TrEMBL record:
Keywords: Magnesium, Metal-binding. Pfam families: Inositol_P. Mg(2+) 2 binds at residue 90. GO terms for molecular function: inositol monophosphate 1-phosphatase activity; metal ion binding. This is Inositol monophosphatase family protein. Coiled coil: none annotated. InterPro entries: Inositol_monophosphatase-like. Mg(2+) 1 binds at residues 73, 88, 91, 215. One of its GO terms (biological process) is inositol metabolic process.
């Protein structure tokens, strides 16, 4: 299938704009949140903003592309076919609830299971990050910037990120602890924004032990087209989620995978 047959950036922008009409007015309003059941997680929140934004995105997609399948965090999978939209209306609901602008709306498209294009929109800061199979860039009030991952190849010089240390403390494997000790430093709490910063060359490694497809599919084209690598810990494609590592380059990725798989 040619790229010309796939949805355009302008269409993606219409989707994230529709979501922002819902998410932005509710941001920093001390929203109530329900708890979803997730094994091993004390509190996995969902808000009306999550649900309403996904509904808005779905309605636009179904109107324009009725034959496409849709996978969303809040309402599961509808439709079948080789082209599937993958949606996380608010990736980072916890920081959204805390008033911290590292959440984002994630929308991606897979063709025959492979991520082909994706967007991460952060409407509060007024920026988005885009990737397809030919380019990756960010755009904000300051203009458009090409995304390029860093050339850091030594773990000792690498900046590592994971959203929370909690998933690693619940596991007996020592791989992440070993990696965290080897890198320059490790930071926490950046959610999808950290992956965007990896594509922008600000972060060198993003490690997440429990991702869903809607957490990672929209980010894969952004990172890969910026020069980065995204796989599961076993080295396979990351579209189906699981234990995921994103790295600035191949050398760093291989070194980090070796440590992560030590004792996992």
């Amino acid at each position: 299938m040619s790229n010309d047959a796939l949805p355009s950036l302008d269409f993606f922008l219409s989707l994230v704009e529709a979501a922002s009409f819902i998410t932005l007015p509710k941001f920093r309003t001390r929203l109530a949140a329900d708890a979803k059941v997730k094994p091993g997680v004390k509190f996995d929140p969902v808000t009306d903003a999550d649900r309403e934004a996904e509904i808005a995105i779905r309605e636009i997609i179904k109107s324009a592309y009725p034959d496409h399948s849709i996978l969303g965090e809040e309402f599961g999978t509808t439709g079948v076919g080789p082209i599937q939209w993958v949606i996380d209306p608010i990736d980072g609901t916890k920081p959204y609830l805390c008033g911290i602008p590292v959440w984002g709306t994630l929308i991606g498209v897979t063709v025959d299971g492979r991520a082909t294009r994706g967007i991460m929109s952060q409407p509060y800061t007024g920026e988005f990050f885009w990737g397809d199979q030919s380019e990756a860039f960010s755009e904000s009030a300051r203009g458009r910037s090409t995304l390029r991952t860093s050339n850091v190849s030594a773990l000792s010089e690498a900046i590592c990120h994971t959203t929370s240390p909690e998933p690693f403390t619940r596991r007996s494997g020592r791989g992440f602890a070993k990696l965290s000790s080897a890198v320059k430093f490790t930071r926490y709490g950046g959610e999808c924004y950290a992956f965007a910063m990896l594509a922008a060359g600000q972060i060198d490694l993003c490690v997440e032990p429990s991702m869903q497809p809607y957490d990672i599919v929209p980010l894969i084209p952004i990172i890969e087209s910026a020069g980065g690598i995204v796989t599961r810990f076993d080295g396979g494609r990351a579209e189906r989620g699981g234990k995921v590592l994103a790295s600035a380059n191949r050398a760093l990725h291989e070194a980090a995978l070796e440590m992560l798989n030590d004792g996992c």
